[in-house]
Amino acid sequence: PSITFTDSSGESRTVDAENGSTVMETALRNAIPEIEAECGGACSCATCHVYVDDAWSATVGGPSPMEEDMLDFAFEVRPTSRLSCQIKVSDTLDGLVVHTPSRQG
Ligand code: FES
Hints:
By secondary structure, this protein is of the alpha+beta class. The protein has helices spanning about 25-30, 55-60, 65-70, and strands at about 1-5, 10-15, 50, 80-85, 95-100.
């Protein structure tokens, strides 16, 4: 599946993602800017924060209660905010668009 990351300046990068990996891992593997992922995907740092594109938010769904608690530490949280290490890539998400915030934490 392909995932498009749009950064805070509006620049988009579309990359191939592996099923079963996470959106965060896909970002790191492709050197996507504005994602730090300090905790390596353990849902305990909130520096992999992204905004799911409005067109995709229903498909991706909302955060788990644990993720929601962690999102309290993210910068400029919006209704479409998710931690990208908690979004698993699958064919359903082919074409997914996420936006990265101007800063993490
Ligand atoms: Fe730390 Fe996602 S990588 S919460």
